[in-house]
Design a protein that fits this description.
The chain contains six helices and no strands. By secondary structure, it is an all-alpha fold. The two termini are 30 Å apart. The model has no long low-confidence stretch (mean pLDDT 91). The protein has one domain.
Length: 183
């Protein structure tokens, strides 16, 4: 898996790309939370749920379906003032869905683990993309504070940070999306 640092960078880059101006603290906290929350599934190990189980690490909570449920929940629970059928409300849902989906998608580009349950619960197959250039991060802080952790950060810098920030800056300065509501 990429580190929580990298998933957070993706959230900040996405928020920067779509923001028309200053955004609320609520927007930024929820952006980062949606991008990182999937890794809370490591708690499954504490409950004896095996890695390969649907609710194990990189299973259901890394799926596109979970990302959709989370996007809908965040959009309607935290931004109800937009109105259920408004375009603005559905743009908010889409934004948070994409942030949550980015987690499993990035993890599918890593070179370790059992794969990602992208289509769970409908298909519990674990997937990787054909190209896996991102070095998988250790699950423990102790493992991260080694040469492995440095290699992971360098891999993420090259394969995620630079491209994501470049795309966000391009969108921000050249495309200037005006469709996203001020939050």
């Amino acid at each position: 898996m990429p580190t929580l640092i990298t998933h957070s960078i993706v959230a900040v880059a996405a928020g920067t790309a779509v923001a028309k101006g200053p955004m609320s603290a609520r927007f930024w906290v929820l952006s980062v939370l949606c991008a990182v929350i999937a890794d809370a599934d490591v708690l499954a190990f504490k409950f004896g749920i095996p890695y390969s189980h649907m609710f194990g690490h990189r299973g259901f909570f890394h799926s596109l379906f979970f990302a959709l449920l989370l996007g809908i929940f965040v959009g309607f629970a935290f931004f109800p003032e937009r109105g259920i059928y408004s375009r603005a409300q559905w743009m908010i849902v889409a934004y948070f869905f994409l942030l949550a989906a980015s987690h499993g998608i990035l993890d599918a580009f890593t070179d370790g683990g059992l794969g990602i349950g992208l289509f769970s619960p409908f298909d519990n197959t674990r997937y990787f993309f054909p190209i896996t250039p991102i070095e998988v991060s250790p699950l423990s802080i102790r493992g991260f504070l080694t040469g492995w952790g440095i290699r992971v950060l360098m891999s993420e810098f090259v394969w995620v940070w630079v491209p994501v920030l470049a795309v966000a800056l391009f969108i921000r300065w050249r495309v200037r999306p005006e469709f996203f509501p001020q939050l």
